[in-house]
Amino acid sequence: MNVLIIGSGAREHTIAWKLKQSEYCEEVFVAPGNAGTMAYGTHASVDIHNFEEVAKFATDFNIMMLVVGQENSLVEGIHDYFQEKEYLKHILVIGPKKAGAMLEGSKDFCKAFLQKYNIPTARYQTFTENTYREAVEYLRNHTYPVVLKADGLAAGKGVIISPDFEHALDALEDMLRNKRFGNAGTKVVIEEFLEGIEVSVFILTDGKEYVLLPEAKDYKRIGEGDAGLNTGGMGAISPVPFADEVFMQKVKERVIEPTIAGMQQEGLEYSGFLFIGLIKVNNEPYVIEYNVRLGDPETEAILPRIKSDLFELFKSLHDHTLGSYKLEVDPRTAATVFLVSGGYPEGFEKGKEISGLDKVSPEVLVFHAGTKKVDDKLVNNGGRVIAVTALGNTLDEALAKANQAAETITWQGRYYRRDIGFDLRQEKV
Ligand code: AMP
Ligand code: GLY
Description:
Blueprint: E1 2-7, H1 10-20, E2 28-32, H2 51-60, E3 63-68, H3 71-75, H4 78-84, E4 92-94, H5 98-105, H6 107-116, E5 124-127, H7 132-140, E6 146-150, E7 159-162, H8 165-177, E8 188-192, E9 197-205, E10 210-212, E11 217-218, E12 221-223, E13 227-230, E14 235-238, H9 245-266, E15 272-281, E16 284-291, H10 298-302, H11 310-318, E17 333-340, E18 365-368, E19 371-374, E20 377-380, E21 384-392, H12 395-408, H13 422-428
Parallel strand pairs: 1-2, 1-3, 3-4
Antiparallel strand pairs: 5-8, 6-7, 6-8, 9-10, 9-15, 11-14, 12-13, 14-17, 15-16, 17-21, 18-21, 19-20
Helix pairs in contact: 5-6, 7-8
The protein binds adenosine monophosphate (AMP) and glycine (GLY).
Adenosine monophosphate binds near residues 122 and 289.
């Protein structure tokens, strides 16, 4: 069978790499892809926001499965489009329809869902321009820090943590009045700040049954010691030592099961990954957010630990047999380190030649993100450029290999964090 993956990051490269290992998969295409995914097949140069173009590619290349890596296409309704067209109906789509994608597409919808189904989450209230005065009063009486969130998709930038009332007022004005996040900020969720340690939990579900995938921790800040600006993710570790059996049992009972029960009660058809962003506060899981896709860079750490055939797993989703699916997981630790362009997440230069890939140990996996081929040269073409993943019997062993590979691959200005996993290593001593 031929598969088409939608997206262009290291997450999509990893999904392609994993699907390519399946005996059921013939060709794997990635649209729009990057220099790394081109190695897997014809470059699918389609405009992924134009569903007609995607559909034409799918029919021309006899695609039987569509794996949607990133949230935008899901929120825009790519699954609904494929289901509604008679000639596309036979294509298995991995990723929820528009209604289910609202769990990520609207923070207000997500919070209302969490509250209705009694799933632990930070206390909140939602405001619009019409209730601006109430929002100011709410902020005046709130404890600090406080968290303000733009309702819609804002590429991970729509969350502001305010240390005091003055700061929060500015943030509120920026969002609701100055339209800093455009339409995404028409509504603002104001919520209580939770102090704890974060972990990303993933399931694959048909809205009724689910398979729990390995969890991961990602490192969002640009600087070592978790300092500086937020990024799309600088590295990831899986498994996460503090997400032990007792904690994961609580996650199943208090978060995953009520989430699935809620989907059913709401009539939310779902078929795909659900990424549950959790924060552990006094040993209790609280939901920070849902995402309707896998995480990036978490995917680069979790898929290499899954021994099962990913295509078979997807097939099981569509056959509604996930409840009896036995996922095989490598017990070793995976460490992922992201190499980024100097200056990222602010301004950076593109087009610098990347070298050293041929010197990386064959044990280490290399996943491309912002890369491009210009003639015969590989150059950086984005902020996050290449992710390297290594497996090890211990976290230290995995990190040593991943860091060595990160040091080997270079270009003018390249940067990476040398301390990925630092907090998990300290946890042990
Ligand atoms: P989100 O876009 O909802 O994932 O939020 C981005 C990041 O903001 C999260 O990964 C957390 O680090 C932080 N964050 C969001 N909500 C809260 C909260 N209620 N308390 C503390 N940190 C939060
Ligand atoms: N790693 C966080 C995300 O993919 O949204």
